Amino acid sequence: MILLNLKHVCLCLSLLQEVLPATFTRQTVRRAHALRSAAHAALFTQTTTALCPQVWKGAPSWQGHRLLCSSAAPEEVTVVYQNGLPVISVSLPSRRERCQFTLKPLSDCVGVFLQQLQAEDRGIDRVAIYSMDGARIASSTGIDILLLDDFKLVINDTTHVVRPPRREILPHEEAERLNDVKFLVQQLYTTLRIEEHQLSKERELIGRLEDLNSQLRPLEKVREELSKKAERRTTWVLWGGMAYMATQFGILARLTWWEYSWDIMEPVTYFITYGTAMAMYAYFVLTRQEYVYPDARDRQYLLFFHKGVKRTRFDVEKYNKLKDDIAEVRGFD
């Protein structure tokens, strides 16, 4: 009986050793699935209970931030009014940063805005403003007229559609009154700046006059030398003509009263007088001027002067241009 009991005990122990690992493994797997399910349940339970109150409490703040961020895209050109003046925000192409341009609607025009854009970013090669139907807007168009409707701003190869905020259009009487105010402001501005403009213009003219005089001085010295030489040679010609006429008179007198009689010399003096008349007529044919002594003297002076100019290579055209410019500058005084 004791042996049978021992065998029975041993058999039970062996069965326990075979069954125990499988049972332990199944329990371990079941325990792992249970832990995973509990973790998922705890995660979703904590998230739901922790986040729901925050979501409901923070909903108004989240909606406000959303409206603020969605007002304008980074590349969009916007127009807002600050202190009554339009402020245009543009993304510059070179450094990809936004820049604000404050314009004066009454005095500024489209050309001023385009010049400000190119001055702010040297990378802008082409900038223009077009209407929505593709017509180019002139540079002289006022900013107040431009902002009445939507328009397109073309910077290089990029086109921006600009939609200014709508503003109430002034009635006809108020618009006329505003135009009168603009005209008075322009008159006041002109009156206040006229003295400054005159001073700056005077300084500019004085500087230009000094520059022209500095260029004229060396030419003036050469001209004076040529003029003196031409004057001296012209005087010699005049005295030479006087000597010729005196010599002719003496010869004819000698032949008339000492050598021959008047009857013989009368035809000679006639032909000499007629030959002189023919010479004067030939002078008129060649020069298209009447033979008057002052005019003949001036003509001979110019001939000698221009001969000296060719010999010294004096630049007469430059000299005359400088003299004309100086006379024009002095005419503004």
From TrEMBL:
It comes from the Eukaryota. Keywords: Calcium, Calcium channel, Calcium transport, Ion channel, Ion transport, Membrane, Mitochondrion, Mitochondrion inner membrane, Signal, Transmembrane, Transmembrane helix, Transport. Residues 120-322 form the Calcium uniporter protein C-terminal domain. GO terms for biological process: calcium import into the mitochondrion; mitochondrial calcium ion homeostasis. Pfam families: MCU. It is a multi-pass membrane protein. InterPro entries: MCU_C, MCU_fam. The selectivity filter, in which calcium ions are arranged in single file, is composed of two acidic rings separated by one helical turn along the central axis of the channel pore. Mitochondrial inner membrane calcium uniporter that mediates calcium uptake into mitochondria. Mitochondrial calcium homeostasis plays key roles in cellular physiology and regulates cell bioenergetics, cytoplasmic calcium signals and activation of cell death pathways. Belongs to the MCU (TC 1.A.77) family. This is Calcium uniporter protein. It comes from Fundulus heteroclitus.
